[in-house]
Write a structure and sequence with these properties.
369 residues, 38% strand
Amino acid sequence: MKIDKLALALATLVASGAAWSHGYVMDPPTRAYQCNLGKNTNCGMIQYEPQSTEATKGFPARQVILNGITMPVVRDGQIASAEHSPNGKSNGELDEQSSNRWVKNPIKPGYNTFKWKFTANHPASKFEYFITKNDWNPDKPLTRDSFESTPFCTVDGGGVMVNGTATHECEVPAHNGYQIILGVWTVADTTNAFYSVIDVDFGGDNKPGVEEHQKPVIGLAQNSYVFKQKDVSEGYTLDASTTKHATHYKWEVIGDDSGFRLKKKADAEPYKMLEGNTLSAPLAWVDAGHTGHTTYRLTATNEWGEASKDIKVEVLPGKPDESGSWKEGHSYKIGDTVTYKGKMYRCINAHSSAFNWAPDVASSLWKIE
């Protein structure tokens, strides 16, 4: 019976495309990506595919039950390689551990940007970031006991399909000297996760860098908007005025929909892209009678780096009723999105809707986007 279950689980895994879903943290570069860049040497086959550090999800647990089968999570001493062997070749080189084996990324405590690159897209359950304990021993094999027991940053993936890249702003705790950050992308519909080991160096002090030495931290009033169709062209403010440390703003309309553009102000010319040193709140410009949806992307930069975030905009046709797309008596699952009273919500607990569980009042069931 166990063999049958295992065969079924493996068949499900292959059919779901897990073998084709890959990703890694490219900034700051992981140990494996540093191999690809030629900065780390004697890395083995992983230098050709730094995205292939994939193993069973569930870290920091040692084993989990998935599809009715007890499965070991990535083993101690093999966390950096995620026990992966592309093309039958060993990735054991990645698990070599000493205080001077690997190139380190300089880092400061405080807000830092982590940028993922996906070589194949797949829905994300969550992203987590762990850091080694201040008193860990860098000259011993890397184990789960080397890390703090809880992640210092967690980003809810919501079961949404990743697309090319993803950027997260996380507050990194104060540590000393050489440390390791472990980024974990947990895939929503397979048994796997991707493990990204990042070697970092905090230097000798334990104090956050001064404000001007931090990358930008984008602050959005909302990350999604829902509007009603109008018979005149209309502008809607995209408010990122709480963004910190930015010296330059770049706004783009992502996609080919010509009905959505950008303006600095209502009487200005519309463009698909705008830039400026103080442009923190431009207008999302929607043509008269236009409906549909698009994504506006803000990239904020300074001399220390960049950060980017997306804002989703949807224009509904006609004059929809107040309930939007949300309906009473409907079964919703985690990750489903609806519109209600001009706002977009994502389901965070599966349920059958009722008149007194509307998205604007049932905060245990819905999260505003």
